[in-house]
Amino acid sequence: MRSLALFLLGTILFVYGAYTSLLVLPASPSPSLENNYRVIFFHVPSAVTSFLAFTLTLVFSILYLLKRKESYDVYAVTSAKAGLFLITAALISGSVWAKVAWGSYWNWDPRETAVLILWFVYVAYFALRASIEDNEVKARNSAVFSIFGYATIPLSYLSSFIGFSLHPSTKELKIGLDVGSTLGIMMLAFILLFISYFLIESRAESLKLMLDELEIEKSSLGGENHG
Fold this sequence. Notes:
This protein has helices spanning about 1-25, 40-65, 70-100, 110-130, 135-150, 150-160, 175-225. With about 230 residues, it is an all-alpha fold. Helix 3 runs antiparallel to helix 7.
């Protein structure tokens, strides 16, 4: 019920924010941007929410290593799934922005490059999990991997401050009240939708694991009775 309420609220805010950003707000006074600046209403929330998701993966990975509770591994993986989806969306929308603002979809800008490294790290996280059959070994190894892999998050954020970067830093951004409030609504919508997904998916994965364990127990009991 709680996850459904969050999903509905997030969807309402998303629809309102998307409508406002795409149809209500005026075009940019900059001839080179015009309506293309509207991509920031999807790019920024995707990036910020992905950082939140990966941070939760870090927290739950640490908790798993400390407590060895399978549920923490489920939470870590669920957050990482959402984070990878969102950072992919941020990369794609950022490339669209780059084409308009800088003339090319990809410029090997420090921020672009750092986020691409981040993307590969979390793709490798899932590749690692897929390569291990034993659930306990899988959870332990991927937890350790995600702790070290998290270094790509601050690297991605700080990359625009390291040397020359085409990507604007937060200090350089100047937005009006209408744009700022709409961007805030979209960020809240993305976060609520992420939380609702996290609650629903982690519950589904936990149930799946429980059913798998029951099936294994049933098979063992069947084998003993047959013997």
